[in-house]
Amino acid sequence: xxxxxxxxxxxxxxxAGGPGGWASLTTGRAAALDEPAAARRVAARVAARxxxxxxxxxxxxxxxxxxxxxxxxxxxxxxxxxAYPLVRLxxxxxxxxxxxxxxxxxxxxxxxxxxxxxxxxxGARSGRPVVVTDGWCAACNRPAPLAALERxxxxxxxxxxxxxxxxxxxxxxxxxxxxxxxxxxxVGAVQVVSLAKGLGAPLTVTTGPRDVVARLAVHGTRWxxxxxxxxxxxxxDRATDPAGGPALARRRRRLWWLVRALRAGLRRWGLAVVGRxxxxxxxxxxxxxxxxxxxxxxxxxxxxxxxxxxxxxxxTFVVTAEHAPADVEHVLAALRGAxxxxxxxxxxxxx
Length: 351
Prior knowledge:
Layout: E1 2-3, H1 37-50, E2 54-58, H2 61-72, E3 77-80, H3 85-94, E4 98-101, H4 106-120, E5 130-134, E6 136-137, E7 142-143, H5 146-155, E8 159-163, H6 178-181, E9 190-194, E10 204-208, H7 210-216, H8 221-224, H9 230-240, H10 245-268, E11 272-273, E12 280-284, H11 288-297, E13 300-301, E14 303-305, E15 314-318, H12 325-335
Parallel strand pairs: 1-13, 3-4, 3-5, 5-8, 8-9
Antiparallel strand pairs: 2-10, 6-7, 9-10, 11-12, 12-15, 14-15
Helix pairs in contact: 1-9, 2-3, 4-5, 10-12
């Protein structure tokens, strides 16, 4: 069965037989008390890649976002309406008020911030707003307007928080993520990235201004939840080691060749493909559920998704660097008979 459902984009698996080892998976001590050197190395490497002054390791994106929102203590959190569900869950865990703004809609953020300011007044630090968004939306395959959002939020005295998990390791120079892919870098934003997708290491790094990161290092879940295991840290240390940069670059080149080949083949078949090139490839077909069933019968496992920012369900292929050109040809051949050769494009979706 050809599987196009895994988001290990670069195909890094970190098997147990790899170099290095550990005496135990965990020390039993909180990360805030005793952090291994590998955690500090990983955090510093990821921060440098994201263009941030400092970073700290968290167990997961959920742990990180809960800590960030709790530390910033805003009176209101504005969350992108199509943000990954985990983002909304974390924002609601500690914030007294959570509101949504239109997907990638800077003007809506301006309107909501103006309304909050008029209604509350922001004299104290705890009254400053926080705006949370994904860096890259893997549903409509578009980047968030990060620079514009940060300007607006900073002008209101608040903080932009970006979950860039989808893009880190894949987009931008050296896999540096959405912001640098777009040609910029954050000023005072906080960025949270899981290494699980791009680099295959199930831990998270939170980056931002040095004072914020220093406070996060001894805050919240870093006292009250298990730190990343030794296995997670070893995998992250290997995946971020500069010595492995050329090999990762080759994997990225292979991945992007496969993504472009699949998108081109889908278009030749007359199908609309959603958004910009990304390993999560959405095809617009009349009946995606039926198409997925037929494809599975022909040895191709796909997804059917109904993202909040698209007007209808789509047939989704998740491409990784482990796939081969022959796999792309297999998918395109399997489509014949599974999907009518007619375009079926959603409206108001960038392509």
